[in-house]
From TrEMBL:
Protein source organism: Yersinia ruckeri
Alphabetically ordered keywords of this record: Cell outer membrane, Membrane, Protein transport, Signal, Transmembrane, Transmembrane beta strand, Transmembrane helix, Transport
Gene name of this polypeptide: outD
An individual GO BP term: protein secretion by the type II secretion system
Assigned protein family: Belongs to the bacterial secretin family. GSP D subfamily.
Record-given protein name: General secretion pathway protein D
Length: 674
């Protein structure tokens, strides 16, 4: 049974009013005109009070949905009821409620029974179980709003002075214990997100405002006399860090920063925290009793002897700087650095602050250095012949796996690649070649006009000299001495002749390499004899000193070193040309002048990691096998193909036989076509 004293109560008041009106007229006995006016005025006042009176509520074991529908009609609000909202309620108000109190009374009744009202747009209310309230998008507030009752809201509160992480556990205890309330923090913006009843959230905001106030924070500077500011800062920060769960975060209340330039420590925070940190710093900033500590540092990559001179110079600079900073000369003890070649280690004796700086320097110097693979081809080309590389470059690009493929359309490209490097070879020429290295070698080797003098391949460290030398030690008469008995004593020295290549690669930013190149090709001149009438041998020497910047994997071409060779050539008829006197009629003698051009091809490849080295080794091994192992040749009915399928025949032949077989097959094809 439900008895609602809203509009029904108004009807009751009207009924009593009319009854009162007629009773008054009856008592007044008609009372004349003035009496009726007085009674009517009393009636109007009474009825107007009845119409404007507040709400009173009384429900006994009523369905909660009936209660919600009654409130919806009374407040003229649209209310959506979740299907899970069920139950009976018994409630009664002993005082009259205005519209605002009546609505809060409605919210309180639902809250007691485990339900929540969410205010939606367009003045629509939604009644749902409280357990689902947090996931049903309650309104988000950034500041105080009209909500002040049991409405479910979200409130975002940015904090200025205190840590959101530290205050969250306290607020969780003060928030609603029901499933609808929660407190979360977001560290990047130091903000809180509180979900709960508007009244509870407002109370929590007031509590937070009392905590989130600017304290007596300032900055102090403590100048160290003995210890390193960086090391002490690390220790103090670690000591201030909490190690017990739930303990106050002291590290966030005080901040410790090192100033290496002045060897000072800056302390920021409240007075108590600053005092605690300063006490720790004073205990750590003590003079060492010993003259210094000694450490043995084993090097991984660098040479101990190489670092010795550098560290001695650095240690002097460090000590001078420490003296200026601390203003106490006797605290900086004499440092001693020794190198042990057997173990490639450094023995350092120094004060702790100097030792720390030296260790940092060693750490930056003892690193794995990049290496450079330097490959070179030194070739002599007959002047005027050029270097024919077109066919080899073109077919090399078409090579697939272990098979050789030929394409008739390639023949038109041959002329474009011929003599491209040797153009303008009359002077010292420098250029770049970006083709295949093994293809370049093949092109040079198969040209009968070229003579490959050397093909050195050297791996060297960055910024280190690499030298390649092949030749002989030729005896040279350096001096003669005649004694009183006419005996002659000769002093003989040795002169190196042959091929010498010296390269110093320096890796620049990115993958570029600066190459300092020195190349020398020397030989003893023909018809140069050492005898009593000759002061010594004559040497032919061609030298190049050059520096060039090239990318890793590209080839530098240096040419233009001409050598003129004069020789006498005799052409004769066998037997007849050897007859004395008349033999001159059957033979011809002429002078032959031959000019040869020395050209250097050099390619640097940067090797930074061990994987790069293994990859380069594998590539070189593959190239070697291609040059020396048997070829796999596929022959089909129509053409030679790089794939063996259909009616193809697969042969496994040596290189020479393969070439001969290809020539025979081509001749046979031409014959059948004709």
């Amino acid at each position: 049974m439900a008895d609602f004293a809203g509009r029904s109560n108004i009807i009751f008041y009207y009924y009593n009013s009319f009854l009162f009106y007629f009773i008054c007229i009856f008592i007044n006995g008609g009372g004349g005109k003035s009496g009726r006016v007085l009674v009517t005025l009393v009636f109007v006042i009474y009825t107007s009070n009845a119409y404007s009176s507040d709400f009173s509520v009384k429900f006994n074991d009523a369905d909660i949905k009936e209660f919600i529908n009654t409130v919806s009609k009374s407040l003229n609000k649209t209310i959506i009821i979740d299907p899970k909202v069920q139950g009976l309620i018994s409630v009664r108000s002993y005082e009259r409620l205005d519209k605002e109190k009546y609505y809060q009374f409605f919210l309180n009744v639902l809250d007691v029974h485990g339900f929540t009202v969410l205010e939606m747009p367009n003045n629509i209310l939604k009644v749902i179980p409280s357990k689902r309230a947090k996931s049903s998008a309650p309104p988000i507030l950034m500041k105080d709003d009209i909500f002040n009752g049991d409405e479910l809201i979200n409130r975002i509160i940015p904090l200025k002075y205190i840590s959101a992480k530290n205050v969250t556990p306290l607020l969780r205890q003060l928030n609603d214990n029901t499933d609808s309330g929660s407190v979360a923090h977001y560290e990047p913006t130091n903000s809180l997100l509180i979900t709960g009843r508007a009244g509870t959230v407002k109370r929590l905001v007031e509590i937070i405002s009392e905590f989130d106030r600017e304290g007596e924070s300032s900055v102090d500077m403590y100048k160290l006399a003995y210890a390193s500011a960086t090391e002490v800062t690390k220790l103090v920060t670690e000591l201030l860090r909490p190690n017990v769960a739930g303990k106050q975060d002291t590290a966030q209340m005080v901040k410790v920063v090192a100033d290496e330039r002045t060897n000072s420590i800056l302390i920021s925070g409240d007075p108590a925290s600053r005092k605690s940190a300063e006490s720790m710093i004073k205990k750590l900033d003590k003079e060492q009793i010993s003259h210094g500590n000694t450490k043995v540092i084993y090097l991984k990559y660098a040479k101990a002897e190489k670092l010795l001179d550098v560290l001695n110079g650095v240690s002097v600079s460090i000590k001078d700087e420490k003296k200026k900073v601390s203003h106490i000369s006797n605290t900086i003890k004499k440092s001693m650095i020794k190198a042990d070649d057997q173990t490639n280690s450094l023995i350092i004796t120094a004060s702790p602050n100097v030792m720390y700086d030296l260790e940092k320097v060693i750490e930056k110097l003892d690193i794995r250095r990049a290496q450079v693979l330097v490959e070179a081809i030194i070739v002599e080309a007959q002047d005027g012949e050029g270097i024919n590389l077109g066919i080899q470059w073109d077919t090399k690009q078409k090579k697939v796996g272990g098979f050789i493929s030929y394409n008739k359309s390639n023949l038109g490209n041959i002329q474009n690649g011929v003599t491209s490097i040797a153009n303008g070879i009359s002077g010292l020429t420098t250029g770049f070649y970006r083709g295949n290295w093994s293809g370049l070698f093949t092109a040079l080797a198969t040209n009968s006009s070229n003579e490959i003098l050397a093909t050195p391949s050297i791996v060297t460290l960055d910024n280190m000299d690499a030298e390649f030398s092949v030749g002989q030690e030729v005896p040279v008469l350096s001096s003669q001495q005649t004694t009183s008995t006419d005996k002659v004593y000769n002093t003989i020295s040795r002169q190196s002749v042959g091929i010498m290549l010296k390269v110093k690669p320096q890796i620049n930013k990115g993958d570029s390499v600066l190459l300092e190149i020195r190349q020398e090709v020397s030989s003893v001149a023909e018809n140069s004899n050492v005898d009593k009438d000759n002061i010594g041998s004559t040497f032919n020497k061609r030298v190049v000193n050059n520096a060039v910047l090239v990318k890793s994997g590209e080839t530098v071409v240096v040419g233009g070193l001409l050598d003129k060779k004069v020789s006498n050539v005799i052409n004769k008829i066998p037997l007849l040309g050897d007859i004395p006197i008349i033999g001159n009629l059957f033979r011809q003698k002429k002078e032959k002048i031959e000019k040869r051009n020395l050209i250097l091809f050099i390619k640097p490849t940067i090797i930074r990691e061990s994987d790069d080295y293994l990859s380069t080794t594998s590539e070189k091994s593959k190239t070697f096998n291609e040059k020396n192992n048997d070829w796999n040749l596929c022959i089909s009915e129509n053409d030679m193909s790089s794939r063996c399928n259909g009616n193809n025949i697969l042969f496994n032949l040596d290189k020479k036989t393969s070439k001969e077989l290809i020539s025979i097959i081509n001749d046979m094809r031409d014959f059948y076509k004709k």
